[in-house]
Write a structure and sequence with these properties.
The structure holds two protein chains of two kinds. Helices cover 36% and strands 23% of the residues of chain A. Chain A has 26 helices and 28 strands. In chain A, the strands form five sheets. In chain A, strands 8-10-7-11-9-12-13 form a seven-stranded mixed sheet. In chain A, α19 packs parallel to α22. By secondary structure, chain B is an alpha/beta fold. Chain B has a single domain (4-229), classed as Rossmann fold, CATH 3.40.50. Helix content of chain B is 22%, strand content 26%. Chain B has a nine-stranded mixed sheet, sandwiched between helices. In chain B, strands 5-8 form a two-stranded antiparallel ribbon. The chains are: A alpha+beta, B alpha/beta. The A-B interface holds A 143, 146-147, 150-153, 236-239, 241-242, 329-330, 413, 416-428, 430, 439, 441, 554-555 and B 11-12, 14-15, 17-18, 21-22, 50-52, 54-57, 110-114, 140, 142, 144, 204, 206-207, 209-210, 212-214.
């Protein structure tokens, strides 16, 4: 029989270290607590040494990684808090609750810091919509996000939905939350002040979610995983909403010293992290915690992941006022212990000590692993594929329609119309454009938010693919008229104990770091999700970037749709023969191969500057980033979003040695599709001339069809009908 | 003196701040009314905002009608005070018997959030007196249970009394099935009581309050209320 520590997911080496910290055998309660805190999910034991390479500082960064969320200065004494997390494995097992509790957890990270949550974004990755199980997961996840987010009154304003076979048994459900706060209200998860009172409020503690981080999140997925369903928690968005209001009222009235939510590893994590951050200790009694069911054991109370629970630390003088605020909002609230000066986390059960260990040792002293990394053998083969040699179908119009109706490029309205994306009355750009835009009330400013990550590119080249994730996010933000400020990242990878997976991880982190440095967008925190594997192996390496941008004047926000007949259409940037890893190659040729598009970080940056300048001067009236599906798809989208047609002609100089399919479907980076009135062309040309960026005028807005010379001619009405109907059709 | 609007806050309301903001934007005074308050007499008009009161766990609006503030609101209505229920607020008004009919789940069994076109069928009410007759307006909806139902008798009575105020229509103003987002009977989107002082509607006028949000058509409803109470 395996030893208890092994069943809990600890290694022999880790067990030995626990004994050397305690200088004795750990009790069962202590062992449970170490097992959850030292799990990959909580300790980042494989990733932490690698993540050190990220740029995390900048003039606008008020809080970088290490707290519940990152905080960015947006001027006028205001700040944005943001964070992204994954809830992949719970969503695979129980799609609705897995996704719902993912939303709940990330919202708590935001309001814990003193920020009112103002937006949710959801990057989602599923298998191909070919079997009922994938459809069930897809529908359940979307409903779970809607069910939870809508009820809490936080708009879901953007996201992405991707379908690829590699995610079939292990979907990715990442959730990003964003909050708005006054800078003087920044609250941290810190238990300072000896003698201060420790209060738990929110839901009662039950037996749900025991071992969620260790058993579920930090092991590979197998056929037996369904038996882990009891490790998935059940969400209650109504209580979450009450927790939001109670927490913000506590902070507004300066009643708490520190505030922390209960996430993975439950009470254990909340107590040891807050104490550890303050270099203090804490003494609590588990019997004082409100319990949902009788006879819960001490270890169960310590590791339960019951949702919607908060830990508050306050002075003894404020104790009654804190309890009164919570109870006014109808929440359970009670004192469970106090802050001590000895640095120890002491756990009592009805007065009897059942565990006592240094808070630091739980929170910060997990054994870090320098995992071996090895370049995977498959790379040489896939990169050797020559995308220039493929034979293109003759009917290019048909090729475009196949892209328009491909699951990855068709309209997402079936998804985002299930999300309340307008509550709070700030949504200035509705879902469907390049980024979500929120105006800030009582200010001229607005923020732009987006999430991006292309697993296919990262599979072909994790370094460049990860750079592209950052570049595309920045491009989406820029296309909305915003200056990119900072990112939060969710790094989804396979089992890090396999050297090939770990190599992908290291390369991706290196790429993201370089791109973030180039764009001046520091990493403010995020999440690493390993062990994303199923019967057919690991998922594509999928680093996801959530980016924040700032717009000085909300009236200068930009959208992707064309605006008016007669406007001139231009492509900024250079189109190269880069079909490797493209949606065209996948849809038309059933191939995920070749080299992913190259990225020149400087070129990208210069392009951003040109577009932002043109927006600032009011020269361009639409901007749409060129990405999956290339120029053809961008044209189609700008037409469909406006209901206007366009007449386009391949510019002979610009596409010198490009085959026309390459010109239309290449996914070359650092490009933007814009439209402008003719009278703006002169100044626009001058801006371009003074930069190192190329551009080409390719046609005009107008008519009811998208016409590309004699190559294709498609009615926008028909195209829109097909584009909007695809997802619904695939599901039913 | 500006009109005084009270916005009720139930546990789980989530549009109370939006309504508060909208009321102030059109020139009214606004204050929050806690669900346990028992006196609402100082207000000229009361807004029951959208959201998920008490989590909507039993049935939308079913628990909210038992909260202390609802007794005060019944009294307020009796005395002729104006009450508008938006989305979940409409559902609460139905549950409380202040308006006829009931709300079913949307036809497609999904939450729907999007802009809808609406035709103002009756511009002679306290809530639409600033609209033209048959005016078309754009307001967003965001609900799971907006599929309005009433029996034949109630429908007949409402028709006879001009109680149907808003119907879902297409961009040209035609009321048809294609323009019906949730399966609502006769495309009904908003109704008033017989006395004309209680208005329930599924669309959110407070969300269409400024051009930056895509429409400011919602202003008409709050301005109509101000005009009604200022007489």
């Amino acid at each position: 029989m395996a030893a208890l520590y092994e069943e809990l997911g600890l290694t022999t080496e880790e067990y030995k270290k626990i004994k050397s910290i305690l200088k004795r055998e750990p009790t069962d309660v202590e062992l449970s607590m170490y097992s959850v805190m030292w799990s990959e999910h909580c300790s980042y034991k494989s990733s932490r040494p690698v993540l050190k390479g990220f740029p995390t500082k900048g003039p606008r960064i008020l809080q970088g990684p290490g707290e519940n969320a990152g905080i960015i200065d947006i001027g006028d004494g205001m700040a944005i808090a943001m964070k992204i997390e994954s809830h992949n494995h719970p969503s695979a097992i129980e799609p609705y609750q897995g996704a719902a509790t993912g939303v709940g957890g990330i919202l708590r990270d935001i309001f814990t810091m003193g920020a009112r949550p103002i937006a949710l974004l959801d990057p989602l990755y599923f298998g191909e919509l070919k079997n009922d199980r994938v459809k069930h997961i897809f529908e359940g996840v979307v409903e779970g996000i809607a069910g939870y987010g809508n009820c809490t009154g936080v708009p879901t304003i953007a996201g992405s939905v991707n379908f690829e076979e590699c995610y079939e048994g292990n979907p990715l459900v990442n959730v990003m939350a964003v909050g708005l706060m006054r800078q003087d209200k920044i609250t941290k998860g810190i238990a300072s002040g000896e003698g201060n009172v420790v209060i738990v409020f929110g839901n009662k503690t039950g037996r749900d979610g025991i071992g969620g981080v260790s058993v579920l999140a930090s092991q590979e997925f197998t056929a037996k995983s369904a038996a882990k369903r009891p490790s998935v928690q059940v969400g209650d968005p109504f209580t979450e909403k009450l927790c939001i209001e109670a927490s913000l009222e506590l902070i507004d009235n300066d009643l708490v010293v520190g505030l922390q939510d209960f996430g993975g590893a439950g009470l254990t994590c909340a107590t040891c992290e807050t104490a550890s951050r303050a270099d203090m200790g804490m003494e609590i009694d588990v019997r004082l915690v409100e319990q949902r069911e009788p006879n819960m054991e001490a270890f169960e109370i310590m590791v339960s992941e019951s949702q919607e629970r908060m830990l508050a630390i306050c002075t003894p003088e404020n104790r009654e006022r804190v309890l009164a605020v919570c109870r006014r909002w109808g929440l359970d609230a009670g004192v469970i212990g106090h802050v001590t000066g000895d640095g120890l986390l002491r756990v009592k059960d009805n007065g009897v000590v059942v565990g006592e260990m240094p808070a630091h040792s739980l929170a910060d002293e997990a054994i870090l692993y320098n995992r071996p990394a090895k370049k995977p053998a498959y790379l040489a083969e896939v990169q050797g594929f020559d995308a220039r040699a493929v034979k293109h179908p003759k009917d290019i119009g048909k090729s475009l329609m196949r892209l328009v109706t491909s699951p990855n490029l068709c309209s997402r309205h079936w998804v985002y119309e299930q999300y309340d994306h307008m509550v709070q009355t700030n949504t200035a750009v509705l879902p469907g454009s390049d980024a979500g835009v929120l105006r800030l009330k009582d200010s001229k400013k607005a923020i732009a938010l987006t999430v991006d990550g292309n697993g296919r590119y990262c599979y072909l080249d994790p370094f460049v693919g990860a750079q592209i994730a950052v570049a595309e996010a920045a491009r989406n933000v820029v296309a909305s008229g915003a200056v990119p400020l900072a990112i939060t990242d969710c790094l989804n990878f396979g089992n890090p104990e396999k050297p090939e997976n770990f190599w992908q991880f290291k390369e991706a982190v290196r790429g993201m770091g370089a791109a973030c440095t180039a764009f001046g967008t520091p990493v403010t925190g995020g999440n690493v999700s390993f062990y994303n594997e199923w019967q057919k192996g690991a998922i594509y390496p999928t680093p996801v970037v959530g980016m924040l941008g700032l717009i000085d004047d909300v009236n200068k926000r930009m959208t992707a749709g064309f605006k008016k007949e007669g406007h001139v259409i231009a492509v900024i940037g250079e189109t190269l023969p880069e079909l490797g890893g493209s949606e065209y190659l996948k849809v038309i040729h059933k191939k995920v191969a070749g080299r992913c598009p190259a990225l020149d970080l400087n070129k990208e940056r210069h392009m951003h500057a040109v577009v932002l300048e043109a927006i600032k001067l009011g020269l361009i009236v639409s901007a749409h980033d060129l990405s999956e599906g290339g120029l053809a798809m961008a044209l189609a989208e700008s037409c469909m979003l406006s209901g206007l047609g366009a007449r386009v002609s391949p510019d002979s100089a610009e596409r010198s040695d490009l085959e026309v399919n390459e010109w239309l479907f290449s996914e070359s980076q650092s490009r933007m599709l814009v439209s402008l009135p003719e009278k703006s062309m002169f100044l626009f040309d001058r801006i371009i001339h003074n930069s190192r960026v190329k551009h080409a005028y390719i046609g005009r807005v107008g008519g009811d069809d998208l016409v590309i010379d004699d190559i294709l001619n498609i009615s926008i009405l028909e195209m829109t009908k097909a584009w909007r109907g695809t997802l619904e059709c695939l599901i039913s | 003196m500006p009109a005084r609007f009270g916005v009720v806050v139930f546990p789980g309301s989530n549009c109370e701040q939006d309504c508060h903001y909208a009321a102030r934007l059109v020139g009214a005074q606004a204050a929050y009314i806690w669900h346990q308050d028992t006196d609402v007499s100082k207000y000229d008009a009361i807004i029951l905002p959208g959201g998920f009161s008490y989590g909507d766990y039993l049935r939308t609006g079913a628990v909210a009608k038992f909260s202390p503030v609802m007794d005060a609101i019944l009294d307020f209505v009796d005395k002729g005070g104006l009450v508008i229920g938006i989305c979940n607020g409409f559902q609460i008004l139905l549950e409380a018997g202040l308006l006829p009919g009931a709300m079913l789940r949307n036809r497609d069994l999904k939450f729907i959030c999007r802009y809808t076109d609406l035709v103002v069928e009756n511009n002679q009410t306290n809530f639409t007196n600033k609209a033209l007759s048959g005016e078309l307006i754009r307001l967003p909806i965001a609900h799971n249970e907006g599929n309005y139902y009433a029996d034949e008798e109630a429908l007949g009575e409402m028709a006879a009394n001009g109680q149907v105020v808003l119907r879902y229509c297409d961009a040209r103003g035609t009321v048809n099935d294609d323009a019906n987002p949730n399966g609502s009977l006769q495309n009904i989107a908003g109704i008033v009581n017989r006395q004309g002082n209680v208005f329930g509607l599924m669309p959110h006028p407070e969300r269409a309050i400024e051009d930056v949000l895509g429409s400011s058509d919602g202003q008409m409803i709050f301005k109509s209320m101000i005009s009604a109470v200022s007489k």
